[in-house]
Amino acid sequence: MNAPLPAEVLKQHLIDPEICIRCNTCEETCPIKAITHDSNNYVVDPDICNGCMACVPPCPTGAIDNWRLMVRAEAYGVQEQLGWEELPGEKALPETTAALPADDAPAATDLAAPAPFSAPGATVPPWSAAHPYVNLYTHKTPMTATVVGNYRVTGADTESDIHHIVLDFGELPFPVLEGQSIGILPPGLDAQGRPHHARQYSLASPRDGERAGYNNLSLTVKRVTEDHAGAAAHGVCSNYLCDLAKNDKVQVIGPFGHTFLMPNHPRANLIMICTGTGSAPMRAMTERYRRRIDTGENGRLLLFFGARTERELPYFGPLMKLPRDFIDINLALSRETGQPKRYVQDLIRERAASVRELLADRNTCIYVCGLKGMEVGVLDALHDVTVQGGQDWSILHDALRREGRLHFETY
Fold it and tell me: For the chain, which terminal residue's Cβ has fewer other Cβ atoms within 10 angstroms, N or C?
């Protein structure tokens, strides 16, 4: 068992600025508000952090999982961390410090009692998921990709300008899996005169490429022209990507993600729940299944896909051409003329019998991707469906998380 850290020594929690993509997940997750940020970095306040680890599993890049043994009085302060471009090296501790724990994890006896934390989804991948590669390329050593395709996948007369963008890596390795994401470095400088940080995008293509057998991948990108309140706003990276032309060069970092991965064993079932560009990882998984449709390896696919109208659903045309015995498609349209408003959680309840049947199968995994606000509605719907079937949702929910079978990727 670990010995406690001596009082004068701190296991300081740090965020690697070279890997961090500034997605705000850690700050949103931290239960005691120990994480803050400016336009440059996300940092951990050593005077607040208690090492509860709540922020570590949700981080898509692993940038959050860095620790330094420090003399407490010499701990790196918030202002110093905000100015970093890379993590400092390890510091040698004075020989006068008492014996330290042998393990590399924070010693529980050195920390205040952690605040309770319960993620809505799993923090581990399905047991059969393929091994992911992560952080092969960073802000300092990005990969250069070439644009080989860029076209709009929503109706030209709609406000939702969503593009399907294909990037090719040539002969250089960039191995990815369905459910992973990459970071794009937009050119130019921010308001403080610094290079822009990367923006994260989920892959819309399977592991063997947008074109099977090619070293390329695809993204689903919505042009941002207003903020969540409806005020005019220019999305730096989304507009950059949507305006790219064939043969343009793009700086890429990553890949990221080690939990939102599809199962890899035969007869695995997928329940996919998404809205808008949250369809990207669902497209990747569906395409992986489609390419092996004749092998007999596939389980069932049940899709709940939400948008305002059919013409604002990315990939609507190709999606509707898929065989009905291959994928069970349920569209939730909230603003379709002449139809009542329906959201993905409404359809989950309507298809309660099918959902319960799949949930009863231990080969079923659930994936949810879209705006963060959908989490509560989806969980409530799954709760209702389960309770209607005479089961205890809290027990099932815990099992789904523990077994890596319920995954959220929301933003």
Answer: N
Tokens of 274: 């998404």
Mark the ranges of the chain whose per-residue pLDDT is less than 50: 1-2, 97-117
The CA-based dihedral angle spanning residues 397, 52, 37, 21, taken in that order and rounded to the nearest 10 degrees = -60
CA-to-CA distance for 140 and 55, rounded, in angstroms?
24
Is 379 in contact with 346 (CB distance < 8 Å)? Answer: no
Instruction: Please report the pLDDT score of residue 4 as a whole number.
Output: 58
Say if pTM beats, i.e. exceeds, 0.90: no
Locate 175 and state its tokens. 């191995």
